[in-house]
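Session log. Operator J.P. requested a structure for one protein chain; no other inputs attached. Running the standard single-chain path with token output.
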Amino acid sequence: MHTVLLVDDYATVRKAIRASLERYPEFYVCGEAVDGAEAIDKATTLNPDFVLLDLAMPGMDGMETAIVLKRLMPHVLVVAFSMHSELLDQYVNPKAGIDAAVSKVGGIEKVVHCFHKLLLIAN
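Structure written below.
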């Protein structure tokens, strides 16, 4: 089973993602965070396989958070998740902390497909 930390400033989004991911037995939501600082704190404590990270958050945004996460935990797979699908490709840069990006409009199936693809590459 692969663990996922959800990071989004909207509780309703986190709740919907959690409920959708729970339909896939290979993934377990190990925690949730509302902003970048909490994401870093929880990630270093929970050691997830994936961090599903909203890019647009108040305070420390997703890009800043991804850079810190990757520096502290180079093994964690960070997937950016945003409503701004037209901009997502420009954010994918493993050296800057983002391993992949998925549009929120694409739904959870796109996220799960992305997770599977990253797992194949990592192994």
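Operator note: The first helix runs from residue 11 to 21.
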